[in-house]
Design a protein that fits this description.
The complex is a heterodimer. Helices cover 82% and strands 0% of the residues of chain A. Chain A starts with a helix and ends with a helix. Chain A is built from 13 helices and no strands. In chain A, α3 (65-79) packs antiparallel against α4, α4 packs antiparallel against α12 (262-287) and α5 (101-130) packs across α8 (166-190). Chain B is an alpha/beta fold. Chain B folds into two domains: 23-284, Rossmann fold; 295-363, Roll (CBS-domain), CATH 3.10.580. Chain B has helices at residues 36-46, 50-57, 86-93, 116-126, 142-146, 148-152, 157-170, 186-199, 216-233, 244-250, 268-273, 278-284, 295-298, 302-308, 326-336, 355-363; strands at 23-31, 61-70, 75-80, 101-106, 109-110, 127-130, 204-208, 236-241, 253-258, 261-266, 300-301, 319-321, 340-345, 348-354. Mean pLDDT of chain B is 87; it is low at 1-18. Classes of the chains: A mainly alpha, B alpha/beta. The A-B interface holds A 193, 195-196, 198-206, 209, 213-214, 217-218, 289, 291, 296 and B 94, 96, 116, 120-125, 127-129, 131, 133, 135-139, 148-149, 151-153, 178, 180, 196, 200, 206.
Chain lengths: 323, 370
């Protein structure tokens, strides 16, 4: 009698033990069903990513080192300060000297591809969500889940649906790196002063014109911060994704650890750190308006400015010849 | 003792300025919140007050039964303290805010009935607006700011830059086209705002406290500049201000607004000499009448004068006209040393301003009180 009582009390106080929700089985079955019936759909998604990645990687791997060095120099000169330019050049040379150039180019191709797709998906998504607070509230938990679910959880399902290799690696990366861009796009658009928006409407702007001519340009700095964040997260994910056979610097680290080859792992790690800092500084520079960099327009600085001056000189010379 | 609830059905209609008003508001109401229409119904049926509307329908009352019209080329000032609903009212004219009830006609077209495309066209072509906080586009140069309404209409770059340059010349900022708004002082920024409103050559200007954020000296300069311009350009202007001096300086007619209600509409002289209620009277108490009150208000009729001073000889007294203000009457009286001024109209003497009447006029008391 007493024992029975104890058991009843136990059940009343711990009711959740009585019922078991077989979520694990459901997820398993859902995944199997998806793989069984809709694998073609996921293979279809592969195609554009595959194409972009192969093209970019082919370009980066086949361009001579010197040309890439000059390109790196020009890009950082155009968008960032002198310190960053020097740093970018030193990093590139270091990566080449330690023998990680090819892997670094693979990683760079992966990062560029995933950031491009993040922008293609995230920017319109953020713009759309900024217009409706209800939709934003509905999507926010999804974004939270994307960012906080441990990558290992969805690494295997992604492999089952997409296979192994660089493309599923990019898909995993997009899942992880997309949320900050969406979030910061929404934030940037919401931060545009309402009086400026009102003025635009007062002069007869349509909703679309307000978005394109006012909201997006004024949100651009925040959006650039989002892109910068996406880039950083992509780079960190590329290492985790090496577990599903994604190549590049992450693979170097993984292999090095697997074989207890600490030296190899260190080289991969160094490459990732240098690349992260360089990409971060350059994209942060892109986020600053030209006037913050001390010129009125972006083309009044860097190699483009040089080109324009050169063109003007040639023009002057030819007109002088005529006279 | 129970307090009588204040009722809202007190709005006055005003006489129209002329037969063809450019802006006309008819019985305009704005009640905030989702239940505005319901509240409107209750106000009409039960005649409930402001507090009750807020209590029962959860929405504040912004504008109460406002009716007025602004004629071609007229400068119509709406004066009220902050929170009186004047900025809300002006935003109904270009429908930045939709009214709960009532209509607004822009050159005879009902703006509340327009679809989006028509509304945009009306805003872009007919109405220019200047804002208290300038609201210039920080990412565009001064020239691009001024050309903004033209850009929205798809005018090509060369043409709109040419027009923008002309608008900048009008406000004397032609050298600053390539600068950015944050490189300009407040007064200059507001001149850019004015140029932006003028660029599309609209018929109507809405000025929402354009000079309030500026320091007094600059404000005065801009008022003068604006008056000079408005004489030249003859834009129909709705001018919002919280400063009665400014309203009197600028407005042909003034509407005094209090708690969403247009309390009085009239010429500056009407407002000052015949305030509709104590609120307006308190407002105008400190206002100098020298440039507001005219001879026709203070003069005695010729009959009354002859009764009072049967032996007075008017021949040789200085002459003046009925629309001279007190200030110039004082000048006349002091420089000639005369005790009476004859007020002439097409060669006939229609009245006499005596020394006493003139002094009473300055005081703001009735001329016949002696």
């Amino acid at each position: 009698m007493v024992e029975l009582n104890v058991s009843i009390w136990h059940n009343i106080l711990n009711p959740l033990e009585l019922i078991h929700l077989p979520l694990d089985i459901w997820v398993d079955e859902l995944l199997n069903w998806l793989v069984g019936n809709y694998r073609w759909f996921f293979q279809l998604i592969r195609a554009p990513i595959d194409f972009a990645l192969v093209t970019i990687e082919h370009l980066l791997q086949n361009t001579p080192e010197v040309i890439l060095l000059i390109l790196g120099w020009f890009v950082s000169w155009q968008f960032a300060d002198r310190k960053t330019t020097v740093f970018v050049l030193i990093s590139m040379v270091t990566v080449g000297l330690v023998g990680a150039w090819s892997q670094a180019m693979t990683t760079l191709a992966l990062v560029i591809t995933s950031v491009v797709f993040c922008i293609i998906i995230g920017l319109p998504m953020g713009i759309l969500l900024s217009r409706s607070s209800k939709m934003e509230a509905a999507v926010r938990p999804v974004l939270d889940a994307m960012q906080t679910t441990p990558a290992f959880v969805y690494l295997i399902p992604v492999v089952m649906l997409f296979g192994v290799g660089n493309v599923p690696g990019i898909i995993v990366t997009i899942v992880f790196a997309l949320p900050p861009l969406v979030r910061l796009t929404i934030l940037g658009i919401h931060q545009v002063p309402s009086d400026v928006i009102e003025a635009a409407y007062a002069f007869g702007a349509s909703e679309r014109q307000v978005m394109v001519k006012i909201k997006i340009p004024l949100a651009l700095r925040t959006i650039m911060t989002g892109i910068n964040q996406t880039l950083m997260l992509s780079l960190s994910m590329v290492v985790v994704a090496s577990m599903i056979a994604v190549g590049g610097l992450g693979q170097m680290v993984l292999r090095g650890i697997g074989r207890l080859d600490i030296g190899q792992a260190a080289i991969g790690g160094l490459g990732i750190v240098l690349m992260a800092i360089a990409l971060d500084r350059v994209t942060q520079g892109m986020g600053l308006s030209p006037r913050m960099r001390g010129t009125r327009f972006w083309y009044q600085k860097g190699p483009v400015h040089l080109l324009i001056k050169l063109r003007d000189k040639v023009k002057d010379a030819t007109t002088n010849d005529i006279h | 003792m129970e307090k009588q609830p204040e009722t809202l059905l007190t709005g006055r209609s005003s006489e129209s300025a002329n037969s063809n008003p450019v802006i006309e508001c008819r019985n305009l109401w704005k009640i905030y919140g989702d239940r505005g229409a319901e509240a409107m119904e209750a106000i009409k049926k039960e005649n409930i007050g402001k507090e009750e509307v807020l209590e029962r329908f959860g929405g504040g009352v912004g504008v109460v039964d406002a009716s007025f019209s602004v004629g071609e080329g007229e400068i119509f000032c709406i004066m009220g303290l902050s929170g009186s609903g004047k900025s809300t009212l002006v935003r109904h004219v270009n429908r930045l805010i939709d009214p709960t009830a009532g209509t607004v006609f822009i050159e005879g077209n009902d703006i509340t009935a327009m679809n989006r495309a028509e509304l945009r066209r009306t805003r872009a072509e007919k109405i220019g607006m200047v804002f208290q906080n300038m609201a210039l586009l920080p990412h565009k140069s001064v020239r691009q700011n001024v050309a903004f309404s033209l850009e929205l209409r798809g005018v090509d770059r060369k043409e709109r830059n040419r027009i923008a340059e002309r608008a900048l010349e009008i406000v004397k900022l032609e050298k600053w086209g390539a600068s950015y708004p944050d490189e300009l002082s407040g007064g200059m920024q507001q001149r850019v705002g004015l140029a932006r409103a003028l660029a599309a050559d609209p018929h109507i200007l809405l000025m929402d406290e354009p000079f309030s954020a500026l320091d007094p000296l600059i404000r005065r300069q801009l008022q003068d500049q604006f008056l000079e311009l408005s004489v030249k350009m003859k834009k129909t202007t709705l001018f919002i201000t919280h400063d009665l001096d400014e309203a009197i300086r600028i407005g042909h007619r003034i509407a005094i607004m209090k708690d969403g209600v247009l309390v009085q509409i009239g010429t500056p002289e009407d407002i000052v000499t015949k305030p509709a209620d104590k609120y307006v009277a308190d407002f105008v108490a400190g206002i100098s009448r020298l440039h507001l009150v005219y001879a026709h208000t203070v003069m005695w009729s010729i009959g009354y004068f002859q009764k009072k001073y049967p032996e007075a000889d008017l021949n040789g007294c200085p002459e003046s006209s009925a629309d001279e203000d007190l200030d110039s009457l004082i000048d006349v009286m002091v420089s000639t040393g005369a005790k009476f001024i004859r007020i002439m109209e097409s060669g006939n003497c229609v009245g006499v301003v005596t020394q006493g009447a003139l002094l009473r006029g300055i005081q703001g008391k009735e001329p016949d009180e002696e």
